[in-house]
Amino acid sequence: RGIPREPGAHWTEPGCQSCTCQGGQVLCDTVSCSVPCSHPLPAPAGGCCPTCTGCLHEGVARAEGDVFSPSDGNCTVCVCLAGNVSCLSPECPPGSCPSPSPADCCSCNPEKCNFRGRTYAHGARFSLDGDDCTTCVCQGGEVECSFTPCPVLDCPQHQRHLGPGQCCSTCRDPPAPAGCFLDDNGVEFPVGQIWSPGDPCELCICQADGSVSCQRTDCVETCPYPIRIPGQCCPDCSAGCTYMGRTFSNNETFPSALDPCLSCICLVR
C-alpha cells in the first residue's frame, strides 16, 4: 500500500486485520481477541477488542467499581469489578411476617389464621358454621367477619319478606288489583263501576282485571231545532225547540226573528 515495512514488523489494518512482514511478504489475519471478563465494554473508537476496564450490564455501561441494582429490583445489589458483574441478594430469615414493611427486601409469607379449631391461609374467605349470612376473611393471622351485604329494596316495609334460609329480604308481589286506578286524577273505581270521564257521550266501565273499557255514544238528531241540555249527551227533541238562541216549549207560538209579521210555533214530533 505504498508504505515500506521492516522484516518482522507487526501492524493493524482497518477492519481489525493483524498483519506482519515476513520474507518480503505481508501476511494478514483477523485480530483474535481474548476477553477474560464476563461483561466487557465494547471496543473503544479505533479499537478491535472489548475492554475489561468497565462493565456492560443490561445495555448500560458501568464504570469500574460501580455499585448498582438491576432493573428487576428485588433488593439485589451488583458491583462492577474488572469487567465482571457480581450480584448479591439479601438473605432473609425463615418465618412469617404478619405486616411486612414496604422497605423490607425480604419476601414473607403472611401468617395463617387459627379460628374455631381450623386453620385458614392468608386471604381465605369462609362462612361461619351454619351461618351463610356471615363472611369471614383471614388477614395476616387475624379473622375479620362481616354480614353479607344486601341489595337496597324499592318496596315498602310491609311488602318485604325474609324466607327460611335466606340472608336478605325480598319484595313480595303486590296484591291483585281490586279495582281500576286512574293515574290522571288518582281516582280508584271498583270492578263493575260505570262512569263518565268528563264527556257525557263517553261511558267507561272497570273490568275485573283492573283495565278500563270505554265506549262512545253516537247521537241521532230527529228534529231540526233540538234542545241541548248541559250535562246530557244527546240533544232532546221531546222537551221543546231551540230557535235563534231561545228555548220554546211544545205548541208555544212566537214571532219570527227575521220577519215580525210571521208567527212561528214549536211542534214536537
From TrEMBL:
It is found in: Secreted. GO terms for cellular component: cytoplasm; extracellular region. PROSITE patterns: VWFC_1 (PS01208), VWFC_2 (PS50184). Keywords: Glycoprotein, Secreted, Signal. Gene3D superfamilies: 6.20.200.20, Complement Module, domain 1. Residues 1-53, 53-114, 111-172, 178-238 form the VWFC domain. The keyword tRNA processing does not apply. One of its GO terms (biological process) is cellular response to virus. Its main location: secreted. PANTHER family: VON WILLEBRAND FACTOR C AND EGF DOMAIN-CONTAINING PROTEIN. This is VWCE protein.
